[in-house]
Predict the structure.
Amino acid sequence: MCDCDYDQPSIFSEYIVKSARKDHQCCECQRTIKLGETYEYTFGVWNGVAQTFKTCEQCQEIKHWAIESYEESNDCFCWHYGRMLSDVREYANEIARDVPGITMQWGRRMIAIRRAGGNV
């Protein structure tokens, strides 16, 4: 069980993968999620403020990679919506000395985001 030091939503009503019926903007890399592409839709209420977040496939992939990498080291990956990519970068830098190749793994994922049109 993760113990992250940030506020969890007081109400968490939805976390699903959808297919875009119109263009959206990824909350992480700022690229346009185009019609027909899948994205992760999250809705919650943090400190009384309702918010939605839409995350493109490439950003979902890097987030799931970080979560799995942390689990392998018996830790958990904590991130903030809108700052997840910088949180992953910090994580990769922290463990680079102990985990050979982690920087290359992170870099390949960031290149995929750039190639898809992400602003990273």
